[in-house]
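Quick one before lunch.
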Amino acid sequence: MAEKGILTVVSGFSGAGKGTVMKALTERFEGYALSVSATTRAPRPGEQDGREYFFRTKEQFQKMIAEDALIEYACYVSHYYGTPREYVECRLAEGKDVLLEIEIQGALKVKKRYPDALLVFIMPPTAAELRARLIGRGTETEEVVKRRLKRAAEEAEGMEAYDYILVNDTVEACAQRLHRLIQSQHMRASVNKDCIERMKRELEEINAGTLS
Ligand code: 5GP
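Model of the guanosine-5'-monophosphate complex:
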């Protein structure tokens, strides 16, 4: 049977570039599966159902909650967002390292349910750089940029709950660091229980003289 994959939750401020980092990670390295969330918010121009999100009505979303089809869900800016269970659990069982790009309330729920999950927060090098990136996108009004920076200050309050903080100085470097971090989790004692048990058994047998 394949070794179980590592579940990684990535959060970060709007404009921190977490989406770009995740994209770089999945393009550069093998073995990752990016979970697609369900949401009740409307698709933005260019977004496709099943690619960026599964766009669902509130009723459909509530049905998913009732059927326990989501491993977590949260309400963010008046819309529901949730992580479909089946995809995540199947990919983990296949040995894929699964990535969730979700906000903090969801991240904390995942950690409770999957204590071995790795929680990573991606941040820009400085607050001035975050502001410059938000302005540089050219798609947000000054008012929206201000609101996002206020929200970032609120979200920064939750950063201590994460296992690791990664600085997104360049997408390439940050994706490399994230890859190394996830790969190192495969060596954690808590995810290698079978390997530990096997070693104990072998040592017992060798000491009993039943293993040559
Ligand atoms: P957006 O509407 O800009 O795509 O996403 C808004 C926020 O919802 C982002 O912080 C994103 O990480 C978060 N989000 C996306 N999918 C999920 C999910 O399945 N669960 C939770 N808890 N948050 C999500």
